[in-house]
Amino acid sequence: MPLNRDAGLFMVVPLLRGALMQIHGKTVLITGGGGGIGSALGREFKSYGCRVMLCDKNADTLSKIEAALPGIHAVPCDVTDDAAIDRLKDEVERTFGGLDILINNAAASLDYSFVRDEAALEKAALEIATNFRAPLRLIKLFMPLLARAPEAAIVNVTSDLAYIPLSRKPTYTAMKAALHAFSVALRDDLEESTIRVFEVQPPPVNVGRKRDYYFGLGLQILPSVFAPAVVQSIRHDVFEIRIGQSQFTYWMSRICPAYLRRMMNTKKYYKGKKPPAAEAAEGSRTA
Ligand SMILES: NC(=O)c1ccc[n+]([C@@H]2O[C@H](COP(=O)([O-])OP(=O)(O)OC[C@H]3O[C@@H](n4cnc5c(N)ncnc54)[C@H](OP(=O)(O)O)[C@@H]3O)[C@@H](O)[C@H]2O)c1
What is the pLDDT of residue 7? Predict the structure, then answer.
């Protein structure tokens, strides 16, 4: 197993050697491209001369991004809608004639109590559909296009919460853990192919949400700092990309998982904010 496969603390090693994957001129599809991280990644890939298509269910934010980033292709699409995904594939083929990099970034993130919330099953179904079923379907659908490319990549965006089950985000954390496990299995399955499988585990990234209990250790980073670091990591074949606080939570989750889980689930952690139980009683919100 090559050292750079799960770089962890040794991420510096692959970063010290020359770039492996050529980014320049690639075609890139990013789901959830209207959001903070998706749009920053779109901007970053574009700066490498890539042809970029952003898809998002939020047509308003998409059109603003399209206006701000001339040359970007923006396609409204709900990734939980199978017919819409089929149309998206046609659009990609029509526009690019193929695809080099697929980035599964769209996600729903709901704060709720599975025990107390009457709508718990509906909320769980939305997160399962958006955060797990959709990436799998997109990968299966785009696999023939990716396989045609001389050098391709699938990039699944999970979270540092993939390693930390949270009681106030029960199905969000479960689906991120599932996508993490799937990414590892898929990487092994594609080992002999020209398709690399990356996983991005973002730390808390400041995407301009007014209210967010998950502010980590107060070390939020900006999308404009995060996105270049992600693309650099892809260029250097860092397959599990943990930047900033994600490194810390990853190692804490390996060394003292019970302590980390207690710390992240405790009221004290939300200093001065409403405890999760109050949030659950109020309903939910999408991150
Ligand atoms: N920001 C962080 O601190 C953080 C930390 C860990 C992991 N992440 C992960 O990073 C990724 C990007 O998050 P972000 O912070 O950039 O969030 P964001 O700003 O909310 O962006 C997510 C985008 O995905 C869109 N979306 C949601 N459901 C969709 C669907 N069914 N079809 C198409 N688009 C859909 C959202 O549209 P609407 O606005 O209409 O819902 C939104 O534009 C997510 O996978 C998230 O779990 C983020």
Answer: 47
58 CB near ligand 1 (under 6 Å):
yes
Please give the model's pTM, rounded to 2 decimal places: 0.90
Q: Is 2 within the bounds of a domain?
A: no
Nearest residue (by CA) to ligand 1, atom 13, is 37
Residue-wise pLDDT for 206-242, tens only, equals: 888 644 444 445 568 899 999 999 999 999 999 999 9
Output the CA torsion sign for 158, 164, 167, 170: positive
Ligand 1 in reach of 105 Cβ (< 6 A): yes
CATH of the domain at 74: 3.40.50.720
Is 16 part of any domain? yes
Between helix 36-47 and helix 59-68 the angle, nearest 10°, is: 30
